[in-house]
Amino acid sequence: MLGAPLINRGRFSLFAGSLDQYSTLTVDLVRESTVIDMLGLLTLDFKKLDTWRAHPQTFRPADFQRLQDSGITVFHPAVGYVEGNIYAESSADITSWDAFIDAHPEYFIRVCSPADVPRAKTQGKLGIIVGQQNSNHFRTVEDVDAFYQLGQRVSQLTYRDNLLGGGSTDPAERGLTPYGERVLARMNRLGMAADISHCGDRTTLDVIQASAKPVLVTHSNCRALVPYSARCKTDAAIRRLAAKGGVMGVTLVRLFVGTGSRVTIENVLDHVDHVAKLVGVEHVGLGTDVDLDGRDSAAAPKKNDLDGVQYARKVFELTEGLIRRKYSKADIRLILGGNFQRALTTIWEA
Q1: Average pLDDT in the 270-276 region?
Q2: Segments forming the whole domain that contains residue 38
Q3: pLDDT exceeds cutoff 80 at 15
Q4: Whole-angstrom distance, CA of residue 214 vs CA of residue 195
Q5: What's CA 205's distance to the chain center, in Å?
Q6: Which residue stretches of the chain are H helix?
Q7: How many Å apart are CA 61 and CA 307, to the nearest integer?
Q8: Which of 90, 173, 179, 261 is a Cys-bridge partner for 166, taking CB atoms 3.0 to 4.6 Å apart?
Q9: pLDDT tens-digit map of 99-154
Q10: Is residue 342 part of a domain?
């Protein structure tokens, strides 16, 4: 099947016991692509995740197989610490990832350099990019160096308003601060990617302007399609992001996808279309911000998931949709991971 020509020969069930069917073209594209989810979570069950990282032997071959079956090659499972001792929490988070990856060399590769991305694909392993969704752990500019040495390669500058700049939920958003400029300059020099997904509008534009390297929006969508959402990015921001070589990862979190009573994968594809038409297909990727089970649960009555999406197969469903929207095979490979791989290579190289 891996050697089959890229023609649509029909549909079949990809996984034993599953009624979900995908075209041969979809399966070939996913399997041949290096799929990067720039906000891809191994699990949203943080109790399970803590157990895996504290006791790596509890992560079983079946857990690996399920993640591999998702079609994702590289995960960026960053979270944001916003209360308490953020420095200590971020330090513990990163060292826990390092220990977990080291405990399972048969399954995982720590992605710290451009060469690690294709190596994960070639070796049939899962790549992990270690990052943080808040930069308050940078108490000084020198802390950027310390966390880089720990393995951190992506840092979202703000989750909420902090010493570096403003968050998207802050009504009096002040923009990138002088301290934020110094941190950003050090990140540029070291090769740590700046993420502006949760930054307010002014900070978003300030960071893009100030950065000497491409900037990432790892997980957001287009405000033109979801006007009420300050977390989504304006067309002006997307244009400036693209002009500096940046990439925006579209998210599958319902609140940022659509406004109707029914929100589906088609609405996600509308965001892909919008970015592609606005600045080119070279500047859109995936940052789903969800695991393989989705966010909805009996304990959380608020609906966060899309209608009709099997989250364990989200990459296949997105690929099917891109084929329906008449994207070329080359463009689909860019969206699935090629764009983020290019941007990360530029950022990480000295």
Answers
A1: 98
A2: 21-348
A3: no
A4: 10
A5: 20
A6: 24-32, 46-54, 61-69, 86-103, 116-123, 141-150, 178-190, 201-210, 235-243, 265-279, 314-324, 329-333, 339-348
A7: 30
A8: 173
A9: 999 999 999 999 999 999 999 999 999 999 999 999 999 999 999 999 999 999 99
A10: yes
Give the total number of structural domains in the chain: 1
Annotate 169-190 with three-state secondary structure: CCCCCCCCCHHHHHHHHHHHHH
Indicate the SS3 state at residue 286.
strand
- Amino acid in the structure at residue 144: V
Cβ-contact 199, 157 below 8 angstroms: yes
Q: CATH number, domain at 115?
A: 3.20.20.140
48: exposed, middle or buried (C-beta count within 10 Å: 0-12, 13-18, 19+)?
Answer: middle
In a domain, 206, yes or no: yes
Global confidence as pTM = 0.94
Q: Read off the tokens for 228.
A: 């009420």
Q: Is residue 252 part of a domain?
A: yes
> Which residues contact residue 187 at a Cβ distance below 8 angstroms, ignoring those fewer than 6 apart?
144, 155, 193, 194
Taking only Cα atoms into account, the Rg of the chain, rounded to an integer number of angstroms, comes to 19
